[in-house]
């Protein structure tokens, strides 16, 4: 089952996206609908809310007077915390039930307005953010929902910022045009990414880049991409992962690189990464194992063994290197990254070396082989830097 988190600020058009995804074949688990269900008259949560906030929040039809309750909790952190303490356990329980009963071979979309605020990105294989400029969202709230403009802006202000949503997003749907434009964007995302991602997870397929060498200028989103992947891996593996780090060229600001996120997982013993529990947990989270045993040609002349996993997302290729914590290979990846981050001259030299390779090499496999002599020299320089600075991987 592919789990997709869908979010966006109030007035962004998230519900329109959810309806389109449902029409395309997704099962929608609607957080707002669940929140209404758990406070229906007669429910334990309803009774607890009335006891806490008084009879004035009961409407004429016997249900909750949501505007009245909203006026009480909006702007009152303690009142809001009390309300959430009552409702959230019931909401999460019913959400878990709905997710568990969804089709096992289907795509489940959790329509979750406060996904970013609650830090839930690691719960999903993919997070979609619907993005609309604030002024447009205010206009929609005023015209479509009858809000006062000041009230609309106040509600937007207490939600996650655009920057926070962008950092949490694997995919951003810009909703600034017509409904037809938004539908077309959803359809393309569904066909080109979500459906392929779902199939890759079910079949254990690792997404790969073409062998044609393409280096990209540094991208700010690489750090955010790595953080999301590390969060998902950490949730999947728990204590089986002693460390999870962003390594490689995309972890070094200012250096051009293949658009591939390199991550390193440190484990007690490589046999841990061979266990069914480890492999199955990674696969379920969207990170299938690459068959066979892998190694790096160590700077000490020895082979440094590792295991290799990848990402099933067709639009976010990642290489996930599993190495024994504290070994030469594990340490080298961290030391090289930190040296490059700290030494501007070394960093620029590495970037220029890569530009030269890009001008004369066409295939990724040849590019990797051509870097080996440079890395042999860099190893000595990195060791010298670490000795001068007192670098240690655990600091």
Notes on the structure:
- With 395 residues, this protein is of the alpha/beta class.
- The chain contains 16 helices and ten strands.
- A five-stranded parallel beta sheet has the order 2-3-1-4-5, with helices on both faces. A five-stranded mixed beta sheet has the order 6-7-10-9-8, with helices on both faces.
- A hairpin with a 7-residue loop joins strand 9 and strand 10.
- Helix 1 packs across helix 9, helix 13 packs across helix 14 and helix 13 packs across helix 16.
- It is elongated and about 80 Å long.
- The model has no long low-confidence stretch (mean pLDDT 93).
Q: What is the radius of gyration computed over CA atoms, rounded to a whole number of angstroms?
A: 25 Å
**Distance between termini?**
39 Å
Q: Give a count of the beta strands, DSSP E runs of length 2 or more.
A: 10
Which percent band covers the strand fraction?
Answer: 5-15%
Unreliable stretches (pLDDT < 50, length at least 5) are none
Query: Helix proportion of residues, in percent?
Result: 40-55%
How does the overall form come out from the CA principal axes?
A: elongated
Helix tally? 16
Helix and strand string, N-terminal first? EHEHHHHEEHHHEHHEEHHEEEHHHH
Task: Output the structural class.
Answer: alpha/beta
Classify the oligomer.
Answer: single chain
Biggest pleated-sheet summary: 5 strands, parallel
What is the typical, i.e. mean, pLDDT? 93
What order do the strands of the largest sheet run in, or round the barrel if closed?
2-3-1-4-5
Question: Topology of this protein?
Answer:
Elements: E1 2-8, H1 14-24, E2 27-30, H2 31-37, H3 44-53, H4 66-73, H5 77-101, E3 107-111, E4 126-131, H6 134-145, H7 149-157, H8 162-168, E5 171-174, H9 179-203, H10 221-237, E6 243-247, E7 261-267, H11 270-274, H12 276-284, E8 294-297, E9 303-310, E10 318-324, H13 328-342, H14 344-360, H15 364-370, H16 372-389
Parallel strand pairs: 1-3, 1-4, 2-3, 4-5, 7-10
Antiparallel strand pairs: 6-7, 8-9, 9-10
